[in-house]
Design a protein that fits this description.
4 strands, f41 fragment of flagellin, N-terminal domain, two-stranded antiparallel ribbon
Length: 267
């Protein structure tokens, strides 16, 4: 029996240190919810997780872009619904102005309403969405995926000749009223085409939105497999390491007490 070198205590201390380190790591995983609490835990997994997290962030940003573009299109269509009502009323007024029993004064009254509706349509053509013109006819490139690919969202131009001619007609005469009937019909036909374009834009954006949602879910699932801790499994590991720490502490105490038995040999 020796007292200068207590091998039993050294062995117990080493085992206790390892168990304590494992217990500490398990606590970190359970408290953070992450399987990787330091790069040393899984270097390759950390690298992959960082790439997945970055792509997921870009996917979320692209999804926001698509949502904003959808709102832009819906705002356009909301305005055009009112423009359609205005042109329909203008067409009605033009037909009423063709009534041969109406006097010039009557047609002047029709013209007042016709002009007011035309002014409303001209005002709508200047409206914007968050500072971006709704009806200047510009095509907008909407980012639709994490790689930066875009969808060309066709624009609507409410200032084109078809609309401007109809809004500027004068129905105070039979000839002018007849021209206004034709012009408003052309405007309504153009408006139908423009609303169809908006509908096509919204449909395409809906597909992109669904695609991004699926991609986001898949990226989250893949990253979870790498980075997220399995609480059930980790709890079992924690319980085991906790018992080992308690046992190791008790055994180290016993090992440190062994040299005390030397005193019995000296008594």
């Amino acid at each position: 029996m020796v007292i200068n070198t207590n091998l039993s205590a050294q062995t117990a201390a080493t085992e206790l240190m390892q168990s304590s380190a494992a217990l500490s790591q398990s606590l970190q995983r359970l408290s953070s919810g992450s399987q990787i609490t330091s790069p040393a835990d899984d270097p390759a997994g950390l690298a992959v997780s960082m790439q997945l997290t970055s792509e997921l962030a870009r996917t979320t940003a692209a999804s926001d872009n698509v949502s904003d573009a959808t709102s832009f299109s819906q705002t356009q269509d909301g305005y055009l619904q009112q423009v359609n009502s205005a042109f329909s009323r203008m067409s009605e007024l033009a037909v009423e102005a063709q009534d041969v029993t109406k006097t010039t004064s009557d047609r002047a009254l029709y013209q007042q309403e016709y002009s007011a509706l035309g002014a409303y349509i001209n005002n709508v053509s200047t409206q914007s969405f968050n500072g971006v013109s709704l009806f200047n006819g510009a095509t907008l490139d909407v980012t639709t995926d994490p790689s930066g690919d875009t969808f060309a969202m066709s624009g609507i131009n409410l200032s084109n000749l078809t609309y401007s001619i109809a809004t500027s007609d004068d129905i105070t005469s039979l000839t002018g009223a007849a021209k206004a009937v034709s012009d408003t019909e052309n405007a309504i036909s153009q408006l139908a085409s423009d609303r169809a374009n908006i509908g096509a834009n919204e449909e395409s954006l809906s597909y992109y939105s669904n695609q991004l949602a699926a991609l986001s879910n898949n990226l989250s699932a893949a990253n979870s497999q790498i980075a997220d801790v399995d609480v059930a499994a980790e709890s079992t590991i924690y319980a085991k390491d906790n018992i080992l720490v308690q046992t190791g502490t008790a055994m180290l105490a016993q090992a440190n007490a062994l040299p005390q038995s030397v005193l019995k040999l000296l008594s």
